[in-house]
Each structure stands twice: as structure tokens, then as C-alpha cells.
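User: These chains co-purify. Model them together.
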Amino acid sequence: MDIHLSYLVDLVCWIKDIVVAVTRENMEAMKQIIQKYQHKRISLIEAGVTRHRSIFNGLKALAEGQSNSNLSKPEVVIIHDAVRPFVEEDVLLKVVVAAKEHGAAGAIRPLVSTVISPSADGSLDHSLDRAKHRASEMPQAFLFDVIYEAYQQCSDYDLEFGTECLQLALKYCHTKAKLVEGSPDLWKVTYKRDLYAAESIIKERISREICVVMNKKEDTDHVGHLLEEMLKIELNDVKVTPGTLCHTGRDVQHIIFEQCYNFVCVNDTTSDFQETQKLLSMLEKSNLSTLYSVVVVSVHFLDFELTPLCQTMEKLLQIRELAKKVKERNILLCGLLICCSQDKQKLQESLRQGAIIIAALIKERNSGLIGQLLVA
Amino acid sequence: MDIHLSYLVDLVCWIKDIVVAVTRENMEAMKQIIQKYQHKRISLIEAGVTRHRSIFNGLKALAEGQSNSNLSKPEVVIIHDAVRPFVEEDVLLKVVVAAKEHGAAGAIRPLVSTVISPSADGSLDHSLDRAKHRASEMPQAFLFDVIYEAYQQCSDYDLEFGTECLQLALKYCHTKAKLVEGSPDLWKVTYKRDLYAAESIIKERISREICVVMNKKEDTDHVGHLLEEMLKIELNDVKVTPGTLCHTGRDVQHIIFEQCYNFVCVNDTTSDFQETQKLLSMLEKSNLSTLYSVVVVSVHFLDFELTPLCQTMEKLLQIRELAKKVKERNILLCGLLICCSQDKQKLQESLRQGAIIIAALIKERNSGLIGQLLVA
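Assistant: Joint model of the two components:
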């Protein structure tokens, strides 16, 4: 729910007001979500007992305005389901433009399964030609006067048992809705498997970019740069962006602002967290991790053959305390110790291993692994 | 595909033959999959250019037998899609029983979206009453003679553009199929999000049980038992089963046989892997990890306050080599060092942390994290 709203609010600047129908028992929780995410354009109304009654309540709020709100009657209204959180701006725009011209418009998709009509005894009566039918999805858009008129005219039976707004516009206002081809993203989160899919889609979306944070920008032989190159090779679908923590910190600041949710921070000294701590404090000051978790991998290089591993590891285990602290801010911190061998081939292998570990941490985003010191 | 077949083959003993339609370019790969998983009941036939033509090819193979196979004409045939891998034995049985009585039967599901009929200009012509229609899903079952007759009678147009077998039985044999209510599991893996969902469902299914392997069964104060208790508390949805590595190893052997895919192995000595190695060799001898990965967490207890952590860690880093070796057999091995403090409260906290880490490893099953030594 909140994800959906955030999508709408953050991405679509031309939507003036958002009216959300909420059941009485969820009203308080919803208010808190709105406050937490600082949504400005959302008004809450009480949901009806059926889908159509909820929509009608929303339309009434827009038509009449509300004493404690700035709502006003719009020219065009979009109707959408909260259970379709991945709607894109493009299709919203298409239905709005079509609704302005035709009075009503809705997104459609090809049917995945054949639709059949059962007879009263539970046998097949007939099956429908799949090529001649479509699934009606959301969003739908209407000239406000058309859909409001339809809801005012429609019967109690419609309000109780109907689900399709396009049908109401047709039946009561003789408005033939324009049908707009939608993308697969419009699917309805209905079953448990849909929640799994939604979780994976969100994880995939916020894992498309990694920022590699380094101080020593000038020295291209620096192992940090070699790691950056290795990440580019091993993580095909991920954009690898370099970032610097200069005095003003503007570079990383900019990347945070552009909503990159994954950071690999290369520390200059093996056994302390100076650079990581700088980055963490920047992240804490930003609101980046409000909606989605931010993954930070604190990278340390050490030649295991020259320096005893165990003393360094013991020092680096302090990362556990650091991780616990930033976890409260939805930042998932892990440590990564990479063997920086003099042998070129061994070094390459360690860097490759490091890139694989980083990929795993970013893909899974599992808070159970925070504070761990991984070794490559 | 192979997952689907394995499900059918492994779970449903009363299915005599399985005929799979495969395109020519995938035939070799498919043969290799069948050999790898040692499927005995599968015959391959060449797929047609449309769905109906593929099914017809399969029916012909069953009707005529094949010179190099043991296929024979069955009384009842089930038609199913490989893209619906989560079919349960229960619904297969239901459609078969109904087909024996009625000649044809198919699984149905409620419609998720309203179905509409567009007019030629891309506007809404009319919308269908959702309550009076259903989605036709798979599996479907038929008396063999009914569906074979239907395919022999049907037109080239049907074979090119049709998709619905129930409709053919109705049209050409006047057989009214019985409709059987199916579960949400019958959904069709169609889009990328469906692959995500399928992956999560499989992971969820193989993560429902953890076997905690211990030698010291008699001593209930043993920290291993405390960890077992903590796992029961922290992992609500998971069945925690104790297992022993006695001389004959029968106990764990039995659990492996019953297809538990997750093992937490408590080692008696902090800095070696004796018990873990025993378990790994049992797992390697079994075929458990052929289809799905097996997660093994090698647990070691140490009082960090009494014994220097770093020497133990250095020894335990050998787990990396061990993990690399068993990775080839689809076994994902990680180490977990748990602080075994004298302070009861600290001990509880470490055990809780350990349980959270174990839960994360089992949930994600990410091979990028193998060989790591995690600390709780």
C-alpha cells in the first residue's frame, strides 16, 4: 500500500490530489504511514463495504470538497487499485489523454487463460474465444462529470455486486470507454505468490546501481579501482558508479540524492572504518533509507601472506556494533576483507570472490547478515 | 520444465507414462535433463508448431505406441502445461475421476480481472459478468477415446488457432466437461514476475524443515540443545528436527531420505570439522542435492572471553576449501561461530543471533556466501 502511494506521489508530479479509501480499522495506521513518508497530496476517506461504494465515497469527496482539505473537483479523475503498485507514469498519462477525448478509458491486457461459462450443474457450457476478449485492468480514467453522474444514477445492485467502472459509464452515461494496452506490470497482487513476486521486483529495482566510494581517485592502480572494474565484469545488469568522499562530500551526496541504494565503501586503512563512517553519517542525514533499505559494504584490503589475518579480523569485528546502530535507520552494513596478494592472479581471484559476495549481499538484502565480516 | 516433470514423476505413482512435447532444438538438452534426474517414465515427442498440434502428436504416440518405447493406449489421459509446475496430486486425481465419469474434466479458477469484449475501434463493447465466468486452467483429463476422436475430427483452423481442449471435446464429441475447482497453485508461469514467484515458492517449500545434527544426545544442558530450542522459538514456520551421527548414522540417513534440505551441524571440537565432514560425506553419497541445493551450517561454540578468538577463526577459515569442494555437489556450506559465554543472558543473545543468521542462510540459499565464517 505505502509503496504504491509513494510511487504515485514521487513519480507523477501532474497528479493534483490523491484520495485513498481506507477501512476504519486501518485509518490510524494509514495516517502514520502518510506522516512517516511525508506525503503531501493524499487525502483519506472512509472505505465503503464494497469496491464501488468506496469509489463513490472518493468521488463525493472530490465533488463536494472537504472542510479540512484542499480538495476540489477535477476535470479528469483516475481510478486505481492499491494492489497494483507497479503502475508506470506512461500508462497513467495514456488513460488520462484518452479519457479527455472519449469521456472514459481503461487499461487492458491479453487473457492468460481461456475464459469459460459453466452451466448450472458445474459442466462446461461454452468457452469464449480468447482472441476476442481482454482482461480489464487498472488504471482507468474518466471525465469527472461522466463517472460521477454514473455513480449517482446507478442502482444499489450495481454498488453491491458490480466491480467494473467502465461498465457503469457505458450503462448510465452511454460513454464508450477507449481501451488502452497496458504493460504486464499492471497485474493485481492477489495471492501469496504475488507478494513474493512484488518483493523480488522491488529488490531487483533497487539493486540496479552500486556506488563504489573511494578517496584516492587519482591513482588508477589502486585496488579499489580494480574492485570497481571487477564489479563491472561480474555484475552484468548493474550500473557501477564511482563516488568520492571529498571534503564537501558533494559527489556521494549527489548519488544519494539520485536514489542509489547500494554502496561499496573502500577504506584507506585496513583496520578502521573512517571512510565507512563518513558515508554512514551522510546516509543517516539523508532520508534515503526511509522507504527501502540501503546496503553498505565496508571493504578492507589486506595481504594475508604478509600481515597476520587474525589481529585485523579481531579489530574489524567492531563492525558488529556499528551495524547494530545503523540498522535502526534501515541501513544494512556488512564488512568485506579482501586478500590483496602481490601475486596478480591470486589478487584477481580475491577481487572476483569479493564481487560475488557483494552481489549476494545486494541481491538478498537480508538483515540477518548485518555486522558480519566476510572474507574474499 | 525439469522441476515440473520431477514433481509429477516423484509424487504421482499412479501415472503410468508421461509424454513430453519438445521442440527439435531443445530435444538434446531435454534428453540430458531426463538422464541427469534418472526419470524412467518420460517419453519425448517432437512438438508441433501450435499447442493443439503438440497435444495431437502426444495423443498419436500413445494411440499407436512407439517402436522404441513401451507406450500403450491408456483409458484416461491428463493434459497439462509445463508452465504450471506446482500442480498437486489432489487436483490430478480429481480431474481423472471426473473424466472417467463424464468423459472430460478440467480445473477452473475464479477470474482475477473483469473480462471485456472490445469493439472494432478499440472501445468497450461490453463487459462480462465476473460471477458467471471462470478461468479455464490445467490440468484437464479425458477418456482417451473421447479426446483422440476430437483431435482426429477437428479442423486445421482449430489446430492452428484453438487453445482449449475442453472445447474440442464438446464440439466434436458432444462431451460436456466436468469443471473442478483448482487451487491458486495452478497459475501459469508467464511473465518475469512469475519466475520470481516460482523461485520464492520453491525456496519456501524446501526451507520448511531444519535438521539439527548433534552427537551428544544425552546431555540436555549441551549448548547444541539450547540452539535447537532457540531455532524453534525464532523460526516459527520451520520444523526443527534433531538428528544424530551415531556409528551407523541411521538417524540422519533417515532424515536425508525424507528430503530435508537444511542441516545445522554442531561440532564437538571448536576448531575442527569432524561432525560436519561426516554429515557432508553422507549427503554426498545420497542423491538429495540433485534437484535442489542443500544448506549446511557448520556450528562451533567458543567462549570469546576465555579463548582468543583469532586463533580459532584462523583455523575455521579452512571451511572455505571444504565449501568449494562440496559446492560442486550443490551443497552450500557456511560456518557459524557462536559465543558460548558463561553469562546466561549473553549466551541467550548469541544463540538468538545464531538462529537469525541460520534463518537468513536457509531462506536465501545464495551460493555467493558459501565458505564464510559468520559470528554470533
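Chain A is about 40% helix and 20% strand.
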